[in-house]
Amino acid sequence: MQSSASTTVIDSRTVVALLSRLRSMAGQADPLPLYASLRELGDVVPAPWGGYLVTGHRSCDEVLRSPDWLALDQAWRAQRAEGSRWSTPSSRELEQTLVTLNPPQHTRIRRSVNNIFDRGTLDTLRPTVERVANELLDTLVEHAGDADADFAELVGEQLPVVTVGHWLGLPPEDFDLLRALTHAQAYAQELLPTKRQLRAADHAIRGLREYFTALVARRRAEPGDDVISGWLRAWDTLEPDRAVADEHVYALAMFVVIASLETTSALLTTMVWTFDRHPEQRSWLREHPAAVPDAVEEVLRYDPPLHLTTRYASRDLVLAGVPVPRGEVVHTLLCAANHDPSETPDAHTFDVTRRARHISFGSGIHYCVGASLARLEAGVLLETMLRRLPALRVVAPPTWEPRLAFRRITRLPVSVR
Ligand code: HEM
After folding, report:
1. Total structural domains within the chain
2. How far away, in angstroms, is 363 Cα from ligand 1 center?
3. Are the C-beta atoms of 342 and 57 separated by less than 8 Å?
4. Measuring CA to CA, which of 120, 245, 300, 376 is 20 to 30 A from 370?
């Protein structure tokens, strides 16, 4: 596979056709055969617009772990043409966030949040997650009545925002606004955003800046025993200039919220959809609830909330036999990698009894900060649903946003009896 990638000429029309099918509703519903077709083209496939798509598990892992491959930082973005997607306000704003920083800046900021979800914090959050999961399922049952209820809106979208909002001490009346802004800003991180999507992302990022700047200012004025006041105290010891400290805390708070909402909501709703298509797995799990954590890992492997991340080559490099010139981007296709048969036998089978290996939380220095919180939410919700709602089933096909990076089921009609 590796040598064929370097010697075979790949028809760009084939790649374009596969990507446009991935964006279609049919592709969103069943992307696996399309990723398999991309993988058959090679581990590293030239993208028609420049750059490369990385399809194999080993190559994706190498890109994410190796210091040779860098996040799309300010220096890289500054070299793109003025007026391109990289000079939009939403792109510029992301330049300050962890995910677009490289060492040494990344190392310094990452250190300040590495332990935010340590065991003690998770143990403190667990009762809230359990209570909220139960309340949301009560609401689902009420709405389900005789008609269908939308699991995505009533549960999948709510648990992450209530959890992270509670953790950061945000007012519940702000949750709908934060969800809407987060959905819209995600376009700035899409593979091929349209102009309309970029305008929506720009608008959203202005709203996020306004919201989180005001939040940091409030905590600065009235510090308390909350997470953001704690970050301010920590950054005051690192930065002599308070304005700089405030800016760091702003970027952390804003990014933690947007990083947690889109992804965790996708995981929770996808989980219900995936089990609905594999009822025998659901029945087995109901009899073996101790396997819930493994089942969550398998859902993450099978259909990750984030399907791609991007890096650029810090110098002329060779990846799986393919030369990649300095500055060129590579998109690691996380879902394709999770289904790489050389890494996972029978990879297209959803099997909650396997020890799933995946890179759905990334790998290397940018490995997800909130993985344990996402696992907690998904595990609690899955265990509660299996116990309380044995008849939960999907009654109409879901609808998706046509995206290639952040998955989003916009509607999942369910019945509970
Ligand atoms: C199922 C849910 C989640 C998934 C699938 C997910 C996935 C990811 C992935 C793939 C990355 C690496 C991106 C890259 O390498 O370019 C990442 C980074 C990150 N995630 Fe998550 N995430 C989830 C939930 C969360 C939550 C709940 C939080 C916080 C509360 C969070 C905060 C972050 C942060 C701050 C980073 C940046 C880390 C860095 O660059 O050093 N994520 N996430």
Report:
1. 1
2. 10
3. yes
4. 245
